[in-house]
Design a protein that fits this description.
globular, homodimer, 13 helices, alpha/beta, 12% strand, seven-stranded mixed sheet, 12 strands, 397 residues
Chain lengths: 397, 397
Amino acid sequence: MIANKMQSLVANSSAIRAMFEEGKKMAAVVGAENVFDFSLGNPSAEPPAAVKEAILNILSEEPVNLVHGYMNNSGYEDVRKKIAESIQSEFGAAITEDNLIMTVGAAGGLNVIFKTILNPGDEVLTFAPYFAEYRNYCENFNASLTVVPADLNSFQPNLQACEQYITAKTKAVMINTPNNPTGVVYQEAVLRELAQLLLAKEKEFGTDIYLISDEPYRKLAYDGVKIPYVLEMYHNTFVGYSYSKALSLAGERIGYIVANSQMVDFKATMDALNVANRILGFVNAPSLFQRVIGRCLTAEVDVNIYKKNRDLLYQHLIECGFSCIKPEGAFYLFPKAPIADDKAFCNAAKKYNLLLVPGSAFGCPGYFRIAYCTDFDRIQRSLASFSKLAEEFNLSN
Amino acid sequence: MIANKMQSLVANSSAIRAMFEEGKKMAAVVGAENVFDFSLGNPSAEPPAAVKEAILNILSEEPVNLVHGYMNNSGYEDVRKKIAESIQSEFGAAITEDNLIMTVGAAGGLNVIFKTILNPGDEVLTFAPYFAEYRNYCENFNASLTVVPADLNSFQPNLQACEQYITAKTKAVMINTPNNPTGVVYQEAVLRELAQLLLAKEKEFGTDIYLISDEPYRKLAYDGVKIPYVLEMYHNTFVGYSYSKALSLAGERIGYIVANSQMVDFKATMDALNVANRILGFVNAPSLFQRVIGRCLTAEVDVNIYKKNRDLLYQHLIECGFSCIKPEGAFYLFPKAPIADDKAFCNAAKKYNLLLVPGSAFGCPGYFRIAYCTDFDRIQRSLASFSKLAEEFNLSN
């Protein structure tokens, strides 16, 4: 018998699998090239050439047991030093390798942070819409996720509501910018106000409240938009980063956590992150890809690939009469569904071979997510389907 | 403030770090080549040449986004199929890719199994001496580890004692063969008797009891010894495997779990393992190394490297008057300490630049562990130190 907690999780995952199976059936009928699967956030841009080059150079230049063997659970010191220096030079943040630990992607990193700080019964706050896995990550440690309702006008963090939601039990506030599912970049002024709010609430309740910024989409920003770096806006801040999207290495599970030196109990916290990385079973971030990162600090995927997709699809949705905030980052669009029931709407979309994800999966019903990390020509071919979908729901342009 | 549970874990880890620092100080005084650090199980044999070859071939032959992108959380189907076929042909086990999920090493795999089966308050049994991380893995899920006392004559699982320890709360029994820290290979007759005992206890208590076999050292066996395959000896069995030692890829975090098809709720369990792999933050086993494994199924490290180390060191210890079971696998020796206080003994050993781990760290006080995964010539140079240590404690040959 599987554990009680797992029963509902398995049921839920079967629903996702059912959708996947439906896509396969669809492909059998209309051909794979005519299924417009916008449901998954799997990077479509290729990793930069520097990645392959780095692997080849490492294999020919570095000692094989160093490359594939155990190292400190926090990761190779030389790699952490290089990353710390690049963060210093890009954001002026006062950090060294001692502020950093390498993690099994951002998902691994968030679990390591939660293991380190959460006691059973603690609350973590996040802002709708949000990445649904956050709830599972909190519940791994018998803590709960509380969702602050969305600011539907901007999808910026709803600070007014947030103030009401912070209690003495609030151990952390999580943000995700550029955001999944909206693609919105949180503004510096809003983040600074959030920092002030957290400081005030720490004082009010006599507690420590952590700010955790999950930033796997940091490198995917368009139109020259600058993504504010929150690390030094607030003392008790962790930033979780991943190379999954930045270098299109989602399967390799490579990322890091960086912590603000001014954090309460900084040294003990870094030690605890190191131990948590070990005892959760990660042990260390994959070794070869740590070394690859050390050689690819200035490499980036070609974000124009995603920008082209966004521009085409956004423009078309607006022309069809959909209402949508133009996203400045990530590879998602989050338009308003023309009916309140977002699940019914996404079901209707299947008629046109469109696979979309209901906003309720992100704590924001009445909307839907389009993951546009797919081929440009598939997006072109999908436009007619979006037009028909708009017609069905009497949207006018 | 870090979480309550983490406080003692950090203190404990600081003790390990202190030992590491001591080794560094020692090296500064006597020279790194004269520090005999037998404390860590980091493979010293090089990965077989097939690993590098596989990486190069994958990078030149396979689509780059397939190699580095997300796949099913259980791992690439083609890789799982190949591994399943190799298990079938080696052990005659009736399994397919549906019995397998790829994991972030064996440590990741064990946590995925525990997440899948453990409810808070459950008990997991293991046999002393045992790998200390098992306790942390259980406690990750609010379950507890109960340790069955060692059979000091053989270091085989102590089944007589085990029978007394199994209760209605026992959810799993864990074994580790070849064993860390003893190097002992559990015998087929003993394992079959254990299977019978578990069947009887399932009946007696009306419960499901899982057998979990942790086998990272399976490929490290000497003198032609065959390591029994427990998967089909008992219905509710999981085997956790890792390529950390088999291919000297400890840092790459690559392994798998295989489950017996006759297991209760087999399909739901496999689904739950898939979900657990995702929500614990592993997401999937590192993608490139999954593909490497698919091409390296017959590759193995040169176990003669370890055998030579074992033979030299074992022979010398016996000649010095130490008492030790000759290990048939892994890369550890677990001799009896000449005094009851194994910690005091390991402290005394430092005088001779020997870094050893007290048996109490493995639930077996009065013994000590030597990890002989190091250079042969370092072992040669260490022999004089072991002689002096034996003299100090009046051991005679």
